[in-house]
Amino acid sequence: MNDEMFMREALVQAQYAKAAGEVPVGAVVVRDGEIIATGFNCPISGHDPTAHAEIMALRNAAAVCRNYRLPDCELYVTLEPCAMCVGAMIHARLKRVVFGAYDPKTGACGSVVDLFMQKELNHHTTVTGGILQDDCSAMLKAFFAERRKLAKAARQAE
Length: 158
Fold this sequence. Notes:
Layout: H1 2-19, E1 26-31, E2 34-40, H2 43-46, H3 53-65, E3 73-79, H4 83-92, E4 96-101, E5 126-128, H5 133-157
Parallel strand pairs: 3-4, 4-5
Antiparallel strand pairs: 1-2, 1-3
């Protein structure tokens, strides 16, 4: 299935984020069955609170398409997008958004709020969640477990 194939590519991007010490979230933008842009989390290293994987992938896709509107594109991301990212996706007029792990703390595709379903907004995007959810969740859980372990070791060393 294409959804799983593209989500696996988003997981590769998430590995890049992890290698850079960032929360491992990755994204890819697909048009006509081909990846045209990628992105991974880099707000820490970039000193940029907007540098989420989805935003980076959207920026790259807009440059490729030479247009900030991406109505023929689908975005695959390993973690349910937050409100900021959903807002950008709405403005980009994405055809579809596919995510892996649900985010019960900041998810804006149904976990906390579903911005795509707000009837007052002028664009509505199809959303599919839970694709390779176990793989996406496992990567995030392992990352945060390792962070907690390192923080504990640092406290004990003081």
